[in-house]
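ok, trying the design again with the full structure, not the truncated one.
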């Protein structure tokens, strides 16, 4: 039962709880009337201390489609945080006005702290370069829907694996499924953090670290492209030097399997050329849509109407 629980890290839900969410998301997608208005009278607080388009809009769309309402801010400058209010106090206030809180914050660990102070469930919509579990639900649902299952895949992660929170969360989540091989493709400055690698080793997950995207292409069932996370760099020159290390173009994709898929949490900067958008393997816009359905399933489950 997910009712009343927070989602801070991908492992907060069991595999069978995630499976129920995926089934529910599919049901909602196939029947527009299903659960319509089930959240009437419920309020979702959306506290975005960092920019967001898809995550915030998909949560708002999810809540509104289920008949609920949203309140919150998309600019930290317009909240009392800019006046020096502590996160704990902001969360206590938001919890007293709402039935659940969705929060994105630039500090790693902020969601965990929020969940401790909140009297209502807290959903982590990204805490710094740490985790982004609802993007992971989106990514897993996309893989499941497009392949029929999540197991037995070779998944390549490419780009900023150091700061990319969606990568950290997805790698941790995929480690729980059987026969997954992960290939981490990045420049040496942006390799996957040590704590994720040691977790993968402990769980005996097969993985490799590489620098070359082209050579890895033929092996992949899923290619997860990411942008270089400019906002987490201390030095703009480093960002400029690294930002275009990988650009997926039709030439590179031509070495990929016919049935592979290309995912990206978006926003894309230059790392996938627009010519790829019309390739049947490009799944990132579908992925964004699945994100709304899985968030509908999540909200309906957390708020206890299913
Ligand atoms: C991601 C994020 O915010 O971490 N975006 C998203 O939620 N869809 C990825 C990114 O910003 O690069």
């Amino acid at each position: 039962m997910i009712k009343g629980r927070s989602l801070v890290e991908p492992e907060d839900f069991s595999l069978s709880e995630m499976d129920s969410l995926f089934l529910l998301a599919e049901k909602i997608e196939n029947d527009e009337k299903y659960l319509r208005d089930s959240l009437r009278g419920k309020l979702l607080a959306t506290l975005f201390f960092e920019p967001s388009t898809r995550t915030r809009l998909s949560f708002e769309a999810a809540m509104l489609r289920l008949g609920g309402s949203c309140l919150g801010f998309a600019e930290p400058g317009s909240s009392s945080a800019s006046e020096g209010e502590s996160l704990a106090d902001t969360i206590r206030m938001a919890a007293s006005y709402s039935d659940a809180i969705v929060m994105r914050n630039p500090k790693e660990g902020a969601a965990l702290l929020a969940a401790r102070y909140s009297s209502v469930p807290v959903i982590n919509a990204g805490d710094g370069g740490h985790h982004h579990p609802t993007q992971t639900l989106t990514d897993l649902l996309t893989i499941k829907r497009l392949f029929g299952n999540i197991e037995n895949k070779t998944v390549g992660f490419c780009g900023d694996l150091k700061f990319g929170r969606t990568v950290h969360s997805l790698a941790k989540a995929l480690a729980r499924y059987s026969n997954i091989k992960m290939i981490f493709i990045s420049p040496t400055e942006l390799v996957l953090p040590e704590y994720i690698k040691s977790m993968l080793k402990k769980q005996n997950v097969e993985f490799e670290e590489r620098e070359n995207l082209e050579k890895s292409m033929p092996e992949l069932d899923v290619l997860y492209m990411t942008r270089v996370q400019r906002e987490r760099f201390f030095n703009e020159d480093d960002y400029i030097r690294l930002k275009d290390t990988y650009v997926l173009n039709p030439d590179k994709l031509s070495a990929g399997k016919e049935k592979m898929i290309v995912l990206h949490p978006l926003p894309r900067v230059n790392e996938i050329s627009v010519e790829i958008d019309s390739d049947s393997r490009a799944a990132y816009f579908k992925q964004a849509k699945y994100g709304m359905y899985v968030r509908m399933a999540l909200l309906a489950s957390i708020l206890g109407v299913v």
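Keeping the full-length input from now on. Residues 54-55, 126, 132, 135, 165-166, 226-227, 265-267 surround N-carbamoyl-L-aspartate (CB under 6 Å).
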